[in-house]
From TrEMBL:
Presence of keyword Transmembrane: yes
Keywords: Endonuclease, Hydrolase, Membrane, Nuclease, Transmembrane, Transmembrane helix
GO molecular function per UniProt: endonuclease activity
Pfam families to which the protein is assigned, alphabetical: Exo_endo_phos
Biological source species: Rhizobium sophoriradicis
Every Endonuclease/exonuclease/phosphatase domain range: 98-299
Protein name per its UniProtKB record: Endonuclease
InterPro entries the record matches: Endo/exonu/phosph_ase_sf (IPR036691), Endo/exonuclease/phosphatase (IPR005135)
Record field: transmembrane: 6-26, 33-53, 59-79
Superkingdom of the organism of origin: Bacteria
SUPFAM superfamilies: DNase I-like (SSF56219)
Entry annotated with the keyword Transferase: no
Taxonomic lineage: Bacteria, Pseudomonadati, Pseudomonadota, Alphaproteobacteria, Hyphomicrobiales
Length: 316
């Protein structure tokens, strides 16, 4: 009976490890969300391997344990790939940015959300699924005189970018073919230095291959931008998802590691980061924190501070 239980458990765990390991063979869109949980699944696989070895000590159980440890360790290594080499936390911040998907049906918390944005002291605020803030726009615009989005009623209120300083440049575009106007490219002058700000909201990776098309369009948009750049928004995927990794490598984007977990809310710090704030040199992050309260959203918001490594020419 012990042999039967042992081999049944081995069979299930072998299949699970094989599915997660497909990332090393192919970037199949249907499994992209699974790849985001590689570290979590790796830990579960390690625990399952130990259970199997407790049932019966055989070499195959040890092989499964080693494979599980590899998946876990490689997951952590992949997160480190996109970490800044030197945080230099003593540098004075040039500006502060908040990015938050407030959830499109989060009407009951709209007043608290508006209060939080105004009290945040952020220079730029990137709000996604901003429809619940429709009736608080005038109050927000008083605190943030410059904005992009939400100009034509609540049905057009999706991405809303707020700024305390005027925009040097602003553009709203679509990425992919599933939803419209979920890419906002702008530039803001901070002390004589123009900083490029890009807001993106990607589809869920298991919605067919829509996210792959969005990432292609996003990569082209980022590739046309020179100078210091911030990319923020809801990616619906971890930085270790192969498709996201490809974008970050190509565009030389970095963040602070470990990134704060932003989803699922119930998991707290043990969730995964699917909302991100990235920077491209000479701009760098000097702090990256999760907001204390999700205020009814199914995501946690992020707030970050940035500094420049050295002076650069203004972006035009």
């Amino acid at each position: 009976m012990r042999d039967v239980i042992y081999w049944i458990l081995c069979g299930f765990l072998t299949l699970a490890i094989a599915i997660v390991s497909l990332r090393y063979v192919t970037n199949f869109w249907l499994l992209s969300f699974v790849y985001s949980f590689q570290i979590h699944l790796g830990v579960i696989f390690v625990a399952a391997s130990l259970v199997i070895l407790a049932v019966k000590r055989q070499i195959y159980g040890l092989v499964l344990l080693l494979a599980s440890l590899f998946l876990t360790a490689h997951g952590f290594a992949m997160l480190r790939e996109f970490a800044q080499d030197d945080q230099r936390s003593g540098a004075a911040p040039l500006f502060r940015l908040m990015s938050f998907n407030i959830a499109i049906d989060n009407w009951k918390n709209s007043t608290a959300l508006a209060d939080m944005v105004i009290a945040s002291n952020a220079d730029v605020v990137n709000l996604l699924e901003a429809k619940p803030l429709t009736f608080h726009l005038q109050r927000l615009f008083k605190a943030y005189p410059y904005h992009i989005g939400c100009d034509n009623g609540k049905d057009s209120c999706d991405t809303l970018v707020l700024s305390k300083r005027p925009f040097v440049m602003r553009q709203v575009a679509s990425i992919g073919s599933l939803r419209k106007d979920r890419l906002v490219v702008s530039s803001v002058d901070f002390g004589g230095q123009a900083i490029n700000l890009v807001s993106a909201h990607l589809s869920k990776p298991y919605y067919d291959d829509y996210q792959m098309g969005e990432l292609d369009d996003l990569g082209k948009a980022l590739g046309s931008i020179s100078g210091p750049l911030v990319l923020s928004g809801d990616f619906n995927s971890s930085a270790i998802a192969p498709s996201i990794q490809g974008l970050l490598r190509e565009q030389k984007l970095k963040t602070l590691a470990p990134e704060p977990a932003t989803w699922p809310i119930a998991a707290g710090a043990f969730g995964i980061a699917i909302d991100h704030i990235f920077a491209r040199a000479p701009l760098r992050l000097i702090s990256l924190k999760r907001l204390d309260d999700n205020l009814g959203s199914n995501h946690s918001g992020l707030i970050a501070e940035f500094a420049l490594d050295h002076e650069t020419s203004p972006v035009r």
